[in-house]
Specification:
The chain is α+β, with helices and mostly antiparallel strands and about 450 residues long. The protein has 2 domains: about 180 residues, no CATH class; about 210 residues, no CATH class. About 20% of the residues lie in helices and about 20% in strands. It contains 11 helices and 18 strands. It has a 5-stranded mixed beta sheet. It has a 4-stranded mixed beta sheet with strand order 1-4-7-3, with no helix packed on it. A hairpin with a 2-residue loop joins strand 8 and strand 9. Helix 3 crosses helix 4.
């Protein structure tokens, strides 16, 4: 890929394949390419001067989720900005910070929107040719134009107009549809023709999280920070869930970290757990998407309203749902990814020095006969709370995930280990990864 958008942000993680969902395995030797090494996802034959072809990355597919989540993405670091952006918290198992970044400059053959995914590749018809690229309006985007001077005759340039997307229309795509993209190109006032490219538009639930160049396993782009976009602390269902959690009478109020007591933080999480149990949400490993590709990896992620309505959730669905509620309460979270699985991490203090993990797939499981109680939680809980039906299951979910996290602690710390990663939601927000907003489904007449 040639786009700067799909380069690592330090928040990125590798895909999975297990109880969470079914996915193809990828080489662990793959690395994220530097900007200067980025490639187009679709190889094209060499063009003669004046010839051009349109493209849509990746693989002639449009992901509304990616466009919405990255709409406010911060630009690459420049000379005038600090080399690093501090995170709100430093997780105990966070990887070492990267070396200060060199000034980021776009490759000379990429002109226009450095985060763009739609454009044309053209071989300049002459030295210093003035080229005009037009993308006409369609159901998902307004008309866009890019004009540029191409210095070298015969050299191929990638021209990416800055596209004015119709975000509301993108957010309403609930099933796969085709869209026609009409391009027109002029050079030095001469019409070089028009082209029509039909792209496949994915439903908003389809989350792309990795791309592997089929011709080069080292050319790997990891965008698993996309999972943070499905954490939506502003979802309209959350106030009702918080009211239900309050009615569990597990705790007298939600005060996040004000008590400076990790046990009370966990008690607030347990109240949410109990409220969600009342919705009888069962584990479901369904994660099929409309993507048919050996190199592009996607996952269907349920939104909160869908998990509640369907009473089903896989490990990703449940993790982003609980993370959404906790963030609304003021409790910071992170997503923990291992090969084939995701579980939720919870910061237990405001500084981020203490944490616990929660196996969210146990939300709908029957309580075990025995469990290892979390000491801090047990100390903060009342006698009546410890007798609730979900108590043992919650403690088991804490114990199981926390042990799993500690088991692979060293792998999370390795900077060159792509299979074990942490996605800090606060860090993702600071980088501009926005939650995908709730849209009321349209009623049929």
């Amino acid at each position: 890929m040639k786009t700067g958008l799909l380069l690592a942000l330090g928040l990125c993680i590798l895909p999975l394949a297990g109880r969470a969902w079914t996915a193809q395995s990828k080489s662990t030797k793959a690395t994220t390419p530097a900007a200067s090494d980025a490639k187009k996802t679709v190889a094209t034959p060499a063009l003669n001067p004046g010839e051009w072809v349109p493209f849509v990355d990746p693989e002639d597919q449009i992901f509304p989720s990616l466009l919405l989540a990255s709409a406010t993405l911060k630009p690459p670091l420049r000379d005038s900005e600090p080399a690093e952006r501090p995170d709100a918290k430093t997780h105990p198992a966070a990887k070492p910070p990267p070396a200060p970044a060199a000034p980021t400059m776009p490759p000379p053959d990429l002109i226009g929107d450095q985060n763009g995914l739609i454009g044309v590749t053209i071989a300049s018809p002459a030295d210093g040719a003035h080229v005009r690229v037009e993308l006409r309006e369609n159901a998902l985007m307004q008309a866009s134009v890019l004009e540029a001077d191409l210095p070298e005759k015969g050299k191929e340039y990638h021209l990416l107009p800055r596209i004015d997307y119709k975000f509301d229309a993108l957010n309403r795509v609930r099933q796969s549809i085709p869209v026609n993209l009409s391009f027109a190109v002029q050079a030095d006032g001469k019409n070089l023709g028009q082209r029509l490219l039909t792209a496949r538009v994915h439903p908003i639930n389809d989350c792309p999280y990795a791309y592997q160049n089929p011709d080069d396993e080292r050319d790997y782009v990891d965008i698993s920070w996309m999972f943070a976009a499905y954490v939506n602390e502003d979802h309209p269902a959350i106030p009702t869930l918080l009211k239900e959690a309050q009615e569990m009478k597990v705790i007298d109020g939600f005060d996040a970290y004000q008590s400076h007591d990790p046990g009370r933080v966990l008690l607030q999480v347990f109240a949410v757990w109990e409220a969600l149990r009342q919705h009888r949400i069962k584990y479901s490993d369904i994660g099929t998407t409309t993507t048919e590709s050996e190199s592009l990896y996607t996952l269907h992620v349920r939104f909160i309203e869908e998990s509640l309505a369907e009473s089903h959730a896989n490990c990703v669905d449940a993790s982003v749902m609980i993370a959404s509620v906790l963030r609304r309460m003021g409790i910071d979270t992170f997503l923990v990814l291992e090969p084939g699985h995701m579980f939720l991490g919870i910061y237990l203090d405001n500084a981020g020095k203490q944490s616990a993990c929660l196996e969210t797939t146990m939300l709908g499981d029957d309580d075990p006969a025995k469990c290892v109680e979390n000491r801090a939680l047990a100390k903060a809980a009342s006698r009546e709370t410890r007798q609730l039906k979900g108590w043992k299951g919650f403690n088991e979910a804490l114990d199981s995930a926390t042990k799993e996290f500690k088991k692979h602690h060293s792998r999370f710390e390795r900077a060159n280990d792509p299979e074990y990663e942490i996605v800090d939601i606060t860090s993702a927000r600071r980088e501009g990864i926005a939650p995908i907003g709730f849209v009321q489904p349209e009623r049929s007449n």
